[in-house]
Amino acid sequence: MAKTQTSRGRAQDRARVAGGQDHEVNYEAKKEGVSKQTVEKAVKSAGNSRKKVEAEIGRH
User: Residues 33-47: what's their mean pLDDT?
Assistant: First the structure.
């Protein structure tokens, strides 16, 4: 897992998509070239694993 430290010293996991965080959803949507709603649906159906979300988006 790719965990880094934030400026506040907290662990941050890059292998997950926080579906409740607009900036993360927007980033993933822009990266994959899909809408924000598509990413939100993928997170709901596949979970928050970045690899699973990307695979779910690729199916549609």
Answer: 95
